[in-house]
Amino acid sequence: MNFQRSQLLARCGRPSSIIERRYARLQRPYQSNHWGGLDQRSRLSKVWTPTGGIAPGANEDAHSKLVRAGFLRQAHSGIFHMLPLGLRVQTKVEKLLDKHMYSIGASKLDLSSISSEELWSMSGRLNAINSELFRFKDRKEAGFLLAPTHEEEITSLVANTIKSYKELPVRLYQISRKYRDELRPRHGLLRSREFSMKDLYTFDLSPNLAMVTYNQVREAYVRLFDELKVRYLVAEADSGDIGGDLSHEYHFPTSMGEDHIISCRSCDYVANEELAESALPPATHDSGANWSFVTSDLGAASAKNTFTVWRGVSRDRNTLINVWYSPREGFQGGSEVNTHAVKSIVSDLDSGVENAALLWAQAIEKNILETQEASPRGAKIVNLVDYRLPSSLAATIHSGEIDPLWTNSPPPSSLGIATSTTAENTSDGKPLNLLRISEGDSCPRCNDGSLKIEKAIELGHAFYLGARYSDPMKAVVTLPAGYCEPAAPTIEGFAEAPVPLNSSQQVQMQMGCYGIGVSRLIGAVAETLADEKGLNWPRVIAPYEAVVIPARGQEEGAVDVYDALAGGRPTSSDVLDVALDDRTNSFPWKMQDADLVGYPIIVVVGRSWKNNRSCEVQCRRLGIKEEIPLDGLAAYIDKLLVQFGANPLGPHKATTSRKAGLSYQRHRSSQLYQTTNPSIMSSPAGQTVDLGGLSTQQLSQVKKQFDEELEHLTSSFTQLRAAQAKFRECLNSINTGVSPKVEGKTILVPLTSSLYVPGTLADTENVIVDVGTGFYVEKSTKDAAKFYTAKVEELGANLKDLESIVQGKSNNLRVVEDVLRQKVLSGNAGAPAAE
Ligand SMILES: [Zn+2]
Q: Which of the residues 24, 398, 533, 562 could staple to 595 if both were Cys, CB 3.0 to 4.6 A apart?
């Protein structure tokens, strides 16, 4: 008697023939269509996966693959239903988030999706982001909205609940649905109007303590993103509408992304374009006499000594903003003008309009018609001249003489329009740098590195909010007289020594907010890893880690294989999350569907099962297809999954191998396939080897050799990186921590990574340096700094060499893999070995 049946009978108390008959009827459809029936196994016949067929559409993107494979369906524009497969992925993402949120002591809660307009007016955001809010009224005409984020609600909750300073710090998070009425929802889950998001809010007693929290969350985020094994970037960012003054963003580089992330090829500088700077090349000092105006058609206008104008208009349409600059050669990707820079000077700039001059002219016309006055009221021109143009030219521009707008019409002065002559410097005295960073510009941090631009999609952020919300929401506590803040190391170095309070004092809670888009993450992973065959999930969020597929007639064997795998893995306490494809579709259909769904591992139970109880294990991402006997199967899959998770260059975070460019994206290898002859590649000695002439076995041998070499090299790379980071940290500590200004003050000395004792620094002139192999030498701080600088540089040089070797080897590996794949495919005409 199986599980459901015994349960059914147990509930009824006695076996009833009617119940038995009904149950038999219930079960019949399963028995007639499927050979397994109902049991505890993860059978795909029991999971509702309405597929859109296994034939790909033309130019299908990852979102269409998600729909076709049955992960989700669109309900309305920018609004989606998660189907069982998609929900499995979402649940796994949530589990991953829970794990890392618990690791920093955050409590999970679930705030209502409905927020009140009243609360949003208090924070001043109701009008600021009005157009993106889903607003509605209840029957009493009270205004509500579907929350796009929860700063207001959580601050109000905490302000009304926390009464004593002793209750802080508090870290609260939720994973919930959020709403944003996007004007143009697009790319499926990447920009939708309803989405799932994890948001953490933290409340601390002081900015210093909030900074400790900030750093702990950032470290947790790095661990979290590392686990996904997808290349990511951590960028310094602008905090935008949310307020606050310290912010980091977590991105996946992808061509679908709408952010531009700037990073340095030599140092660890990474920033969002909105915030990024470049080291400024020297300004031009010629007379400006031989400069000529060109129309701003990109590409054509890159001759020497030419300049052009970009126009913008203010939101009220009264101000025309002209940005004058010299077009640079080879600039690609839209407008060269950095609208963020323009906005920092003219804050009312409407950055979303196409024909600014026309809009401005129409507004003037309307203005004159309405007022019946000769000169338009309030109309104004602001000329901004990029610092690269010679200053004599700037003077002419400011006079309004060379604006092509006035070639056939009266100049602005005769129309009574004020021309504001903005100087070449910003209010804080910096030169007016109005152009976007272009590929190859100099790094502002290390000066000799060149900058790289990548399109990326933002998946997470960390904002230090300070009192941005605790001030209007009155989230305050009172510190008693004599309260002494525990001195905490800040990211700058060391805090001032704590001083006990003379009298009690009311303080605002210092907040941080930290989000990760759950649905967006799912869309972005799909986008980043999908290839021409289908989706590709990282192990940690795959709907199932593996699927068992029987060839025709091997259904019984597939159940045995499934049971052997689902029963637990020898080297891990976890049970393998495996599914059994017991659907009635044909075997080739199931194989194609499995590729489309993107299981990390496919186990085929085919002909060799009957002969010697072995199965074929396939792993598309690793390019593996191997015959494995049942008794070694679980261990082999275990090993593959570990490899699958292994990151070729260690964590791809900002401070490490971000620039290495080794990613899992299969389409990279197909690009390579198109651009180079796949069968010819150069060997280390400089000869070329014709890969096409090698047998599959020889190719596998070559591949294996490359694999091993790469594994060794990449682990060395990671170790070197870690060593370099350690020396950098030492250098930083000397510069910020061992200075005369710290002498005599209380500092916190770490005994372990989480236990500190107060102490004072006795000597700021000398430090003890571990010079290697267990020898410690006392050095002056100056000498120690020199020592560490030399170490960092030495390792940097080694890393550079090693990186190019790794890059070369991995390119070779990809070529071998492609040739191997082509060979296997053509040899088998695409049919899996089992049939
Ligand atoms: Zn740099």
A: 533
pLDDT digits 0-9 by tens, 300-310: 545 677 888 88
Determine the distance separating the centroid of ligand 1 and the alpha carbon of 443, expressed in angstroms. Answer: 5
Ranges for all domains in the chain classified under CATH 3.30.930.10: 84-276+454-521
553 C-alpha to center of ligand 1: Å? 61
Q: What is the distance between the alpha carbons of residues 75 and 78, in angstroms, rounded to a whole number? A: 8
Residue range(s) occupied by CATH 3.40.50.800 in the chain: 535-645
Measured in Å, residue 450 CA sits from the centre of ligand 1 at 7
Between the CA of 442 and the centroid of ligand 1 the distance, in Å, is 8
Class of domain 675-835: mainly alpha
Element (H, E) at 32: helix 17-33
Spacing, Cα 272 to ligand 1 middle (Å): 14
- In terms of CATH architecture, what is 84-276+454-521? 2-Layer Sandwich (3.30)
Q: Please name the residues in contact with 452: beta carbons below 8 A apart, sequence gap of 6 or more.
A: 262, 263, 264, 265, 439, 659
CA 338 to centroid of ligand 1, rounded, Å: 21
Integer angstrom CA distances of residue 245 from 168, 444, 512: 22, 20, 10
Class of domain 535-645: alpha beta
CA of 266 to the centre of ligand 1 (A): 5
Q: Where in the chain is the domain with CATH 1.10.287.370?
A: 675-835
Centroid of ligand 1 to alpha carbon of 96 (angstroms): 33
- For residue 214, report the distance from its CA to the centre of ligand 1, in Å: 24
Separation of CA 440 and ligand 1 centre (Å)? 11
Q: Per-residue pLDDT tens for 630-674?
A: 999 988 998 888 877 644 333 333 332 222 222 222 222 222 222
- CA 449 to ligand 1 centroid distance, Å: 5
Please tell me the distance between residue 438's alpha carbon and the centre of ligand 1 in angstroms: 15
- Cα of 656 vs centre of ligand 1, distance in Å, is 13
Write out pLDDT tens, residues 70-109: 999 999 999 999 999 999 999 999 999 999 999 999 999 9
pLDDT at residue 31 tops 50? no
d(CA 356, CA 362): 10
Contacts of 171 (CB under 8 A, 6+ apart): 104, 105, 106, 107, 200, 201, 202, 203, 213
Q: Which two tokens stand for residue 483?
A: 């309260």
Give 189 or 726, the one with higher predicted confidence. 189
pLDDT at residue number 745? 73
Instruction: Reply yes or no on whether the pLDDT at 165 is more than 80.
Output: yes
Residue 54 has φ and ψ, to the nearest 5°, of -100, -5
CA 252 to ligand 1 centroid distance, Å: 20
Query: CA-CA distances (angstroms) from residue 249 to 235, 468, 482, 725?
Result: 5, 19, 39, 21
Cα 230 to averaged position of ligand 1 atoms, centre (Å): 23
